[in-house]
Specification:
DNA Methylase, Chain A, domain 2; seven-stranded mixed beta sheet; 447 residues; single chain; Rossmann fold; two-stranded antiparallel ribbon; 11 strands
Length: 447
């Protein structure tokens, strides 16, 4: 059997497969890990990864290509831990008679399993969407990742908002530890706030309003107090995260502003995000919105959505300005309904997606900047989102242009503070065991 710790490097080394912009890597780095390499097929995402992890090797390309696979394997065999979130196209369509790993649409997932089997790290973390659970394939995946007993694997759903992220974002994590270590895979313990606090719509008054409702028990009351405490790191609201950026100008050409042009940091979370960022803040461009959207936002209260729009505001074209496709009904189509949602300042954001218009500010009549997306994802301000400078549709690039790519990268990422919680739980579980060198045990004690 290969040794528990592989390669010549220190204990706390990771390789991030299907890394995207590097949310998992950033969280593990904050927990004390060193990032050896990151791989992704999207050249814009790897440009961001390279910008923020200059210490790491960056592999751009399809892992199914022989040369890319060889580079990934070489890096993985030098790391003590492997992390990643492989795209799994057929998880939502799998049938009981088809094993997930055998479906050709899941070839990227199969590559993750094969790299894991070749490198045999101390432990691994695989992250994916919770839709896997809805299709009943969690046990199949856990079995694949166990490598016939080589690993003990614990699947678990974690909500980012329970770990100090100002956004509810449920993700399914498979955490595996080598069976020979005789250590149970850990389960990070969050606040549990998402189960006890909710935003409820009230329609008794002339205009609908949204208000926090807290369950009547001691723990829930404590959660409610933490939500209203700007010094709390445990539970963070949307305003805790981005109120200092409210003054960002709409349509500003520069994507960078000096901190002196912004509001002061007024919460513990904002101060945390600003650490190490220097004198200026990047990714601050705010896109313009058309007149119709501005009018609709006036009819949507904080926390609200299209249900709060009057009949007049549901018309396809309000001011006569023609934009987008016309469905012929004279009304907004169903696909627009998720485009008119406003944050509520007193609770975390809902799950962001990859589009810049998936959410609007709770008080300013505008969309969010990429930096505000990043804040709601718990990326620190020093983390800069960028794109590959080459123009056109180069291999692996998604359509939509550089601005859309930056929103996509931020919206697709694993929140770093959630990843950090998983990494620290692994440190706690592995610390003090005789098969590990003193460096790992010491790292667990420092966190």
């Amino acid at each position: 059997m290969p040794p528990i710790l592989t390669g010549p490097g220190p204990d706390l080394t990771i390789v991030d497969l299907f890394a995207g912009a590097g949310g998992l890597s950033e969280g593990f780095r904050q927990a004390g890990f060193s990032v050896l390499a990151g791989l992704d097929n999207d050249p814009d995402a790897t440009a961001t990864f390279a910008r923020n992890f200059p210490e790491a090797s960056v592999i751009t390309g399809d892992i199914r290509d022989r040369e890319v696979k060889e580079r990934a394997l070489e890096a993985a065999r030098s790391a003590a831990f492997i992390v990643g979130g492989p795209p799994c196209q057929a998880f939502s369509q799998v049938r009981n008679h088809t094993r997930v790993i055998d479906d050709p649409r899941n070839s990227l997932y199969r590559e993750f399993v094969e790299v894991l089997g070749s490198a045999l790290p101390v432990a691994f973390v695989m992250e994916n969407v919770t839709g896997i659970d809805q299709m009943g394939v969690r046990d199949q995946i856990a079995h694949d990742l166990s490598l016939d007993g080589e690993y003990r694997v614990l699947p678990q759903v974690l909500d980012a908002a329970d770990f100090g992220v100002p956004q509810t974002r449920k993700r399914l994590f498979f955490v595996g530890v080598r069976s020979s270590a005789d250590v149970e895979p850990p389960r990070p313990l969050g606040s549990g706030a998402t189960e006890s606090v909710a935003l409820v719509r009230f329609t008794g008054s002339r205009k609908p309003r949204y208000q926090l409702v807290v369950q009547e028990n001691l723990l829930s009351i404590q959660h409610g107090k933490a939500l209203s405490d700007p010094e709390s790191h445990r539970i963070v609201t949307a305003s805790d995260a981005i109120s200092d950026l409210e003054c960002l100008p709409v349509g500003h050409r520069s994507d960078e502003l000096p901190y002196g042009a912004l509001g002061p940091s007024v919460t513990a979370y904002q101060r945390l995000m600003r650490i190490g960022a220097g004198d200026a803040l990047s990714n601050v461009q705010v896109p313009r919105i058309n007149q119709d959207t501005a009018l609709r936002l006036q009819g949507v209260p904080p926390g609200g959505n299209f249900r709060d729009l009057s009949e007049e505001l549901l018309k396809r074209y309000i001011t006569g300005q023609r934009w987008g496709q016309d469905n012929g009904t004279g009304l907004l189509s169903r696909r627009h309904f998720y485009a008119y949602r406003r944050l509520h300042p007193e609770i975390w954001a809902w799950t962001l997606n990859t589009k810049g218009d998936c959410v609007y500010h709770y008080s300013a009549a505008r969309a969010l900047s990429v930096r505000e997306f990043a804040r709601l994802q718990s990326f620190p301000d020093r983390f800069v989102f960028t794109t590959d400078p080459r123009r056109g549709m180069i291999p692996g690039r998604h359509s939509g242009g550089p601005a859309h790519s930056r929103y996509r990268q931020a919206g697709n990422a694993v929140p770093p503070l959630l990843a950090k919680a998983v990494a620290e739980a692994l440190l706690d579980a592995l610390a003090g065991h005789s098969f590990l060198t003193p460096a790992l045990t010491a790292a667990a004690g420092r966190k």
